Amino acid sequence: MVALVIDIGNTLTKIAVFNGDEMLEVQQYPEVTRIALAEFCSLYLPDAVIVSTVKNAERHIWEDALAAFTINCSITAFDSSTPTGINNHYKTPKTLGADRLAAVVGAHHLYPNAANIIIGGGTAITYDYVDAGANYFGGSISPGLKMRYKALNQFTGALPLIEVDENFEAAYGDDTASAITSGVQNGIKYELTGFINEYIKTQQAYNIILSGGDSIFFDTLLKNSIFAPYIKIEPYLVLKGLNAAIQKHND
């Protein structure tokens, strides 16, 4: 089955086409547009469409556009009520971000025989966990990499806005700029290792799945850690999870 998969995030919209589990094309845009949707629909003639969004205010844009561009094609708005094969134990499932849930679905679909720790590096950093039995209980949300740099600049009177330094490896800074870099980047490294340590206390077989725009940078932060052998980078995990959900829904 050919599926059109749309992930509307806080910063970017990703649109992909899958034929079964194979991703045929993926593009990203600052925002979802009718032109982009029209091009994908006319080129691939999808059998089904699934949309995940964190921006409910934009819902009418893609609903109206897809209704105009698709013929005899089911359109699914992904949320906690969508069948996924995941046992969702979250106490308030309706408040669970669709992107977080889709990432959990994607992780279990790709690696069904192990516990999966899913770390999403985007506007926010998210930590989620699904066990080998497809049980999901919850996770954590913290400020993202760029958000931390911006917060230090915006909520202080004198601290400058510093860019991410992918080559920074010092334990501390020796001037204001490097002190900020150390605080932000080492802070995230210690946060990553702390959360992972908590999750693996009772698990012998597990994966650490890094997804999102900062996944490569997080991999760099963890490259010398004891967790490095367990890391898998899946930048399109949310898209793969959405595709797994729509493929399952249309079996």
From TrEMBL:
GO function term, MF aspect, one: ATP binding
Pathway where this protein functions: Cofactor biosynthesis; coenzyme A biosynthesis; CoA from (R)-pantothenate: step 1/5
GO cellular component: cytoplasm
Family matches, as SUPFAM superfamilies: Actin-like ATPase domain (SSF53067)
Subcellular location: Cytoplasm
Swiss-Prot/TrEMBL GO biological process terms: coenzyme A biosynthetic process
Keyword Nucleus: no
Catalyzed reaction equations: (R)-pantothenate + ATP = (R)-4'-phosphopantothenate + ADP + H(+)
Enzyme class label: transferase
Catalytic machinery residues: 99
Keywords carried by this UniProt record: ATP-binding, Coenzyme A biosynthesis, Cytoplasm, Kinase, Nucleotide-binding, Potassium, Transferase
Residues that coordinate or bind substrate: 90, 97-100, 176
Cofactor: how and how many bound: A monovalent cation. Ammonium or potassium.
Chief localisation class: cytoplasm
Binding sites annotated in the UniProt record for ATP: 7-14, 123
Enzyme Commission number: 2.7.1.33
Cofactor: NH4(+); K(+)
Complexes and interactors: Homodimer.
Function: Catalyzes the phosphorylation of pantothenate (Pan), the first step in CoA biosynthesis.
Family from the record: Belongs to the type III pantothenate kinase family.
Protein name: Type III pantothenate kinase
